[in-house]
Every structure is written in C-alpha cells, then in structure tokens.
Amino acid sequence: MSARSAGGAWVRRFHPAPEAAVRLVCLPHSGGSASYFFPFSRALSPALEVLTVQYPGRGDRRAEPFVTDVQEMADRVYAELLSWSDRPLAFFGHSIGATVGFEVALRLEAAGIEPLVLFASSRRAPSTHREGEYDNIGDDEWVLSTVKDLGGTPDELLTDDRLLRMSLPVLRADYEAARSYRYRPGPPLRCPIVALVGQRDTKVSLREAAAWRGHTDAETEFHWFDGGHFYLNDHVEDVVGLVRKRLLPAAV
C-alpha cells in the first residue's frame, strides 16, 4: 500500500504504525511537500505514527489548484483530520506550516478534540505581522533570491535555473498565503506550544517567537538551535528527541 493510498489525497503515511497510540501531524514550509518530513517519520515510527500533509499543487498533487489562503487551508486540513482523530493528535509545523497547524488546532479544540501539543518551528507567533514582507511576490528574481537566502534548498535545485524557476508558482502561492494571513483574535489554545527557532533565522525575532506565549492557556517552551530558517535540516536527531520526550509518555 502506497503512502498516498493509505492516507488519501491530503495525508501521507510513509511509515504506518497501527499500534502507535499517538499521531503526529506534520505540516511543511512554503514551497515544501510532504516528503520533507520523511526522515521524521522514519525516526519516530513505530512509537508514533507520523501523518504528513501534502498541500495541493505540489508533488503528486501538482495538477491541483493551489490554496493561497491559510484559513481555507486550515479548514480543509481540519476536515481531513477528523477521520484520524480516533487517537490523540499532536502537530509539528515548519514555517508557514506552524501557522496552519495553529489554525487547525484551534478548529479541533472548538470541536471538542484536544491536541496534545503544537510544535511551532521557524515561525513567529500568529499575532505578529511584518508589514510589506511579501510585497514583491510578483517579482521572479525576488522570490528566487528569498529562497536562496533562507537556505534549505537542495544544491541540485539551486544550480539548475530551469528547475528553480519551475518551483516559482508553488513558492508564489505559499508566499501569497503568508502575505494575506491575519490572526483572528479569539480564545487561545488549551494545548501547550513548543516553539523551535534557529538562532540566525531572519524570519523570526526573539520578540516574535516569545509572542507564542499569548496563544495558549497552557505552558510554552522555547528551544533555540544553531542555524537559520532551516535549522531542522541539521538537527533532525535533536528535534526528534524533543518530540519523543514530549509525546512518548502520552503514548503509553
């Protein structure tokens, strides 16, 4: 059974773990696909079952129209996850994926389904906003330069201008989602939030990370790593350790 057939259009289960008591839902960054979390899934299975969201318009869903609104994306992911909520869910979102994860967690809690924890990686708190940050998304060279500056893009893609330009529609769609997102004030989450940030990440300041405290009535943890926006590429083992420490007691 393929990862897609096991999870439908939206959810990928690279390493099904039918005996796991907890499911970790992973949501990728701008321009990213479900495969980014394959190492996560491999490392955490079978103790935890990893479900990775595949956004429309990329990978094996590249023929589908993009979703360029975070609230719409959260609505659709929430609807998909209802059928997976027979076991406790936790969330790990990287970059824009953390914002989507936050919005999905709000929807689940409103429906009476309590997530265990939200891991918010390389993302400022939803209530913080940088005016004009994505005003240049219509400029191809600006988009390409931004991707290169953030790091995390495979060398074979960076050195192949044709392939890099093929990724422009995906990046532009995700940047539009980030540009248009505005936090809707309301009740905070009831689940804990664990914020993970690279020390050299130009997209998340200390103040912007600290603002996650205002988005939950539970505890908030902060972990800083050597690296930038894609610190995770070099710290998979460390982050997997944090996830295990937080979720394995709940899986017993």
Task: Write a concise keyword list for the protein shown above.
single chain; 252 residues; alpha/beta; seven-stranded mixed β-sheet; 10 helices
For the record, the CATH architecture stands as: 3-Layer(aba) Sandwich
Give the CATH level 1 class: Alpha Beta
Shape: globular
Terminal Cα span: 27 Å
The SSE string, one letter per element, is HEEHEHEHEHHHHEHEH
Main sheet specs: 7 strands, mixed
Query: What is the overall number of helices?
Result: 10
Strand-pairing-aware structural class? alpha/beta
* Percentage of residues in DSSP E strands: 5-15%
Rg, Cα atoms, Å: 17 Å
- Per CATH, the superfamily is Alpha/Beta hydrolase fold, catalytic domain
Poorly predicted segments: none
Mean pLDDT: 92
Number of beta strands = 7
Per the CATH scheme, the topology name is Rossmann fold
Helix content: 25-40%
